[in-house]
Here is the input.
Amino acid sequence: MAETGRLPPGQRHVRKWPRLDLGIVPRFDPSTWDFRVDGEVDAPLRLTYEEFLALPRASVRSDFHCVTGWTTYDNAWEGVAFRALANRARVRPRARFATFACGDGYTTSHPLTVLHDSDFLMACRWD
Here is the structure.
């Protein structure tokens, strides 16, 4: 049963995440994986998988609301805080958005105000 105010309009609560992908499941190879922060920054970053995992970690517990209409409650996330990466890359004041690109070709953009004002993580562990 949904708690009052916790389930957004149009969402349904699920106990397990549905499997969703674009039909392409990229193979993960830690030897070729890299994480980049570039664009409107003064100190571009390019990290290997080992370097990324060595960064200080943060933990967050939060609900997850998928754009496809489902929600899971109380997810435990661990990863690197976006704010820490942005500070390390020295994001320029004129920057307004961050674009994220994934191995399967999916991209999304978010306003920096949202990313800085929240517990936004580059997650590498979930529950």
Notes: The chain has a mean pLDDT of 91. The CA atoms of residues 80 and 122 lie 5 Å apart. The first helix runs from residue 49 to 53. The two ends are 21 Å apart (CA to CA).
